[in-house]
Amino acid sequence: MLKKLIVISLLLLLGSAAFLEAQKKYEPGVVRWPVKISVMESKMKKKAKRISLQRLLFMQNPQDVKKNDARYQDDRIPYFDNPLKVGEGDIVRTTGWFHLVGFEDDGDYHIQLSRTKESGDSCIILEVPHPDFVTGKMKERAERVRKFVRDKMCGGKEPSGSGKVIKTPQHVYIVGQLFFDSWHVGDAKPRGMKGMKAATLWELHPVTAIGFAKEP
């Protein structure tokens, strides 16, 4: 009986250690964090604007926003006139080829979407927050999106921190908040994992919906 209790205690300790280790894998972000993990429900009530990935990749940057601009740490960048007639905070829908997903230090699923099945280069970056860091409807949305990614792209497992390249890229639709990653304004090196270079500083962050789409 004593031996059995010792074994159970060890298993509980190991389980606790594993749980604590898992908790260490991510922690809240800092730069523009309040914007990254939230959406305006007033925007969500409207139908997402459909924009081709081609047009999103070439959307112009806000002209007066500087690297890590202190004015917008907690606030969205105001609308500016542009051909797409959208701004940060708007909910948009696009389609493209899902080439890569990674698990970031802040718990986000980092997704790279490109225009072609053959190449993941010249992509847009999409981010899905960890459900622990969001509440209400956004929590439910994040859980659904991440489950889809795990089940359909990662064989039911969590993506790796270094990024999992999808062997057979899948054509998907993505819905999410338009977000400008001002932290990387002026960077000489393009963003992107596994040598797939992002073509824009605009992202969909957070992603609110995902699903398979018909191939073009």
Molecular structure report:
There is one protein chain. The chain is α/β, with parallel strands linked by helices and 216 residues long. The protein has one domain (28-212). Helix content is 25%, strand content 27%. The protein is built from five helices and six strands; from the N terminus they run αααβαβββαββ. Strands 2-3-4-6-5 form a five-stranded mixed barrel. Strand 2 and strand 3 (109-114) form a beta hairpin. The model is unreliable at 4-24 (pLDDT under 50).
Topology:
Elements (H helix, E strand, L loop, with lengths): L1 H22 L9 H4 L4 H4 L4 E2 L2 H5 L33 E13 L5 E6 L8 E6 L7 H18 L10 E17 L17 E15 L4
Parallel strand pairs: 1-2, 4-6
Antiparallel strand pairs: 2-3, 2-5, 3-4, 5-6
Can you describe this structure in just a few lines?
This protein has 216 residues and is α/β, with parallel strands linked by helices.
* Mean pLDDT, all residues: 90
Structurally, how many domains make up the residues? Answer: 1
Widest sheet, order of strands: 2-3-4-6-5
Please report the number of helical segments.
5
Spatial extent as radius of gyration: 19 Å
Strand percentage lies at 25-35%
Helix content: 10-25%
Structural class: alpha/beta
Low-confidence stretches: 4-24
Number of strands: 6
Report the end-to-end length measured between terminal Cα atoms.
65 Å
Which shape, going by the Cα principal axes? Answer: globular
Query: Can you write the helix and strand succession as a string?
Result: HHHEHEEEHEE
The major sheet is characterized as: 5 strands, mixed, barrel
